[in-house]
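Bumping with the actual sequence this time:
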Amino acid sequence: MPHTRSSIALFALAAALAAPAAHAQDMDGDEQIAPPPDAVEVPPAPEEQPASAAAAREVYTPEDFARFAPRNALDLIEQVPGFDVDRGGGGGGRGFGQAQENLLIDGERISSKSTSTADQLSRIAVDNVVRIEIVDGATLDIPGLSGRVANFVTRRSGLSGQFRWRPELNFGTAPAQWFEGEISLTGALGGVDYTVALENRDFARGRVGPVIITDADGLVDERINTSSNLFNRPNLSAFFSFTPAENVDVNINMLGGIEIFDFEEREARPFNSDLLPFLQRFTSDSDEWYYELGGDVSFPLGPGQLKLIALESYDYRDRLSNSLLDEGDLPTSGSQFIRVAEEGERIGRGEYGWGMWGADWQLSAEAAFNRLDQVGRLFAFDPNAGEYVELDFPEGAGGVREDRYEALLSVGFPVTETMTVQLVGGGEYSQISQTGGRANSRSFQRPKGSINIAWAPADGLDINLEVARRVGQLDFGDFLASVDLSEEQENAGNAELRPQQSWETTLQIAKNFGDFGSATLTLFDQEIEDLLVIVPVDGGGEARGNLESATRRGAVLVATAQLGAFGFTGAQLDIGVEWEESTLLDPVTGLERRFDGNDPFEIELDFRHDVPGSDFAWGWSFQDTERAPVFRVEEQIFQYGPSTFGAVFVEHKDVLGATANLRFGNIFNGGDTLLRTVYDGPRDTSPILFTEDRRRALGQTITLTLTGSF
């Protein structure tokens, strides 16, 4: 009952907001721990020369957050009231393009797609942060920025280091995670500033629980499913910056690493089953290595500044998946799929900015070259030979290339003392070609651009409106056929895929309520062309394909309530609410439905109390999510982790000079759920073949996070 869940979640939010008010009459004027102060509105430093003063800067210093004992710059921004960190689109975005993250370091974004600005902030010691400036993105001379943006003004102060270690124990079947963490070193040598970091992302999960399969005749088949997966992704990164000549700045980024993934799943009927013995096994191993090299150089040229950016990335992945099935006296059957893929991207970009007619101008041009070479091989198990025998699978091998060229002109200027406008216009040309059994080549021309209006009608109130035309990035793997043995799904390739395009309108309203906190409300609407979904293909089967049109709209509220203003000294409540609705015409039934997996509602509450006069803090978090199904041609699937999640923590800010945070997670003991309806053909015309109800326990967790500086 989705509406019931929404009502409960909204009631919880209302109660959480109302509860502090009940304590207003008990306010204590002699607080030992003050909340983060009102953002100080100050004029920008003269040397920064912003495009406009339309949105007054909010300025915070590390001292404003002393009660949290922050260790690095990222710790600071995570405590800025009402600010939600946007890490951007990640490495899968379209080219380097315009700015997407809402974070800057010394007024610049980093020339990397694998390392986010947030990653880099986690490696900057808090002592090296001068201040944080919150400003509307449209007032900066960086096209693509909109809404609230945080700029970190930093300094260098000799050699410093950061470390984080995050082991986790699971009360279920998952093994312990011992190797999650990072260590970084920042300093200067011979006029070169550097940051070197070694990081590993460690992930382990174990699941066990019953499976109930009911066929069309009502026959119930009960099984037990167990699975485990281990994931490690260690990488070494380095960032260098130097000034080889006056007014010439150079930045270089390097990253390289490996990824190791192992998955095992076993499903069997219990010994007391009235049905024939049944045992099905899946294994999957993936080995990957990757690198990224990037950099930029900026220097004066004529009346303006020229910035040249280059990036090269490469990823090699070798994945092997096996399945075996034993049922009764039948011969053993199974399949094997091997996929070897090489992906790469090469980008060259130039940005020339200058001031003219009281406005900031920028002309940018970018060339991006993406590539994928894949060999997919399919095998069937031969019980007589006791080994896998290769099948003909030409659709799984081939290559995809896209050569893309983009040019944009932007201008930003003040309209009044409280309003700034930024206009961006241009377009792109791309050519997509495919080799292999379905060789094809196509070219496209698409307009791109945006208009962004920033308005600060009153102190502590910022309003931003953006209307943008955007083009999405294709997953080249969708051009070629692939197989998922565990889910018993096969995707045919589609050589006619087109990148998604959309008109996107976003309205963001940010309000500072002083000692009481702050809130940011974002409303968005997307009118989408060529949305990518699973569609039926001629002759049977399914593949990724384009839908002519679709819509998506919603609202996001991010707020911070400073409970000290209501007498609860040292406490704050962070609130996040997301609501979405979406509409497309189902390519199988022709009826309207939501996007695949587009969850309609989510609420998240994070409470923290820094105990006055001590180094202790404690808190809790709560998250509740409504779920939406995923559709395939012959299936409807609900698959998700815990819909209701909770955690509690206790923290000490000085354990031998480090901060120790002990967290008890999944306190409601949420599990992993799969509800699947499989039809005997397309969903619109075929009867139900069987249903599957799988509910596996994940176990509760204890996580220790140690962070510190040296």
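The tokens above came from a reply further down the thread. DSSP finds three helices and 36 strands in the chain.
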